[in-house]
Amino acid sequence: MEMNFVQRQTQGLAMTAKMQASLKILQMSQLDLTAHLAEQALENPCLDIRMPEVAPPLPTGARGTPNPDFDPVAALAEAKPSLYEHVGRQIARAFTHPVTQRVAMAFAEALEPTGWLGAPVDQIARIAGVPRPVAEGILARLQDFEPAGLFARNLSECLRLQAADKGLLTWELSVILDNLALLAEGRIDELAQMCDGTPDDVRAALATIRGLDPKPGMAFSAPDMPVLPPDLHLTRGADGWQVELNRSVLPGLRVTDGPDSAGDAAARAWLSAARSRARWLVRAVERRQATLLLTAGFLVRHQAAFLDAGPEALRPLSTEEAAAELGIHPSTVSRAVAHRTIETPRGTLPLRAFFSRAFTPGSGADGPSQDALIALVARIVAAEEPTRPLSDADIVRRAQAEGAKLARRTVAKYRDMLGIPSSYDRKRKAPEPA
């Protein structure tokens, strides 16, 4: 066998350590970045950091010498998850579409530590940009989460959800839960008459109620309900929408000379390298902020109609299309928008909400987006007469009258995504006319 050696010259991009570190900084959330910079400032005497108004806990090293008896594995085993984390994991499993996930997360953000909703459904629907019936459908799915009683709007609903979950919800108990004020006042005889029972029946129901948990959210670790400030602010100016960074969450960085080396050559060399690292870190953070602002500005310009008119005006846009317009790599766009939020007149939205797939693949920005058509189906259903709900075929005809071509199976799929029952179930649940 004959062996030959051949030389070839090729071109490629080598990912240096600094490039990898720069990409890591780009992908960090504001709080992760602040914690990272605080840790770097502990190690580098030439880097001075001014903590933002909303600052994360400093790294462990900034708090002094750790306790040698501390067992981190045991601490993890004993620590309870926060209510927000618990609910967030269930939302990720139960809702796979970005629209329904966004609405579900709006409900999660309104949760109080007790597990009850702290805002009315109408308000949450406005924040999420969906009609009330859609929000109510998603709330019904959220109220199936574990433990039972989460997402209740009041004490009566919280106890009702738990009783139903345990198979204890009888008609008599339902009547008593609807009249908890009478129970609190001790008007047992009056309640007995209302539920066609005896005072002993009411007392037995009271024993059942006492076995329920009026505050199911308190079983979780209380504090860490992250109400994080947005990364960006959006305002309307004379020249249209204006995007700016939220300076209150940005750490201030400054490169200093460091301590006096007192003529020590080795110390001067070490400080020179430390200043070089500090300058690079400052430039990396500046590039991160510039990339974030550039990307957000493009998204706002591209989806200005969405900000003005709502989800039905959302245009198709992919990360690849955004990257081509901005002249950067698609992975850079993905890193720039990951875990980023922007405060808008429509509430605080994730930057991911500005992306949407085209309804017809390959149609680009000329065709409608999936999210826009989902919002259209939600609006059509919200406007129907409750006693005469629209069938999927009716929804198709109304959508076509507005210029949207949908198949009936597509309407059914979008209904499922939005948690909207079939026309038969909607009619069965509709209130009877007076």
TrEMBL record:
One annotated GO molecular function: DNA-binding transcription activator activity
Domain (RNA polymerase sigma factor 54 core-binding): residue spans on this chain: 75-256
GO biological process: DNA-templated transcription initiation
Span of domain RNA polymerase sigma factor 54 DNA-binding: 270-428
Pfam family, one: Sigma54_CBD
Stored InterPro entries: RNA_pol_sigma_54 (IPR000394), RNA_pol_sigma_54_core-bd (IPR007046), RNA_pol_sigma_54_DNA-bd (IPR007634), RpoN_core-bd_sf (IPR038709)
One annotated Gene Ontology cellular component of this protein: DNA-directed RNA polymerase complex
Keyword annotations: DNA-binding, DNA-directed RNA polymerase, Nucleotidyltransferase, Sigma factor, Transcription, Transcription regulation, Transferase
Purpose: Sigma factors are initiation factors that promote the attachment of RNA polymerase to specific initiation sites and are then released.
Family assignment from sequence similarity: Belongs to the sigma-54 factor family.
Protein name per the record: RNA polymerase sigma-54 factor
Organism, scientific name: Rhodovulum marinum
Lineage of the organism: Bacteria, Pseudomonadati, Pseudomonadota, Alphaproteobacteria, Rhodobacterales
